[in-house]
Design goal:
Structural class: mainly alpha
Number of strands: 0
Largest sheet: none
Shape: globular
Number of helices: 4
Radius of gyration: 15 Å
Strand content: under 5%
Distance between the termini: 44 Å
């Protein structure tokens, strides 16, 4: 099995951060996207989040994907999968630590 080289992950993370920066700050000005970027853009657009909630979710998504890349991820997770995981985590009650 081919293992991803750390430099490849760094390049992918840089590309991901550029995309997220465009989405969050400057808006999309370019007309050419990588296939994985198109998938993320379509997935984000399909979400029902708008306004401040969308902006916060996208910032949280970017932070989570940065952490995932640092742990060895080769591609970013879909935004919808991130939201599902967030919802599942939020609905799981905290269990107090016995001590």
């Amino acid at each position: 099995m081919h293992e991803s080289h750390p430099l490849d992950r760094d390049v992918m993370l840089d590309q991901f951060n550029v995309l997220m920066g465009e989405i969050l700050r400057t808006g999309l000005k370019r007309s050419r996207f990588r296939p994985w970027e198109i998938g993320i853009l379509l997935d984000i657009e399909a979400s029902k989040l708008r306004g401040a909630a969308r902006h916060k979710a996208l910032r949280d998504y970017q932070d989570a994907m940065q952490a995932a890349f640092e742990k060895g991820a080769r591609l970013p997770q879909k935004f919808s999968e991130f939201l599902e995981r967030q919802a599942a985590t939020a609905s799981t009650p905290d269990i107090p630590h016995a001590g």
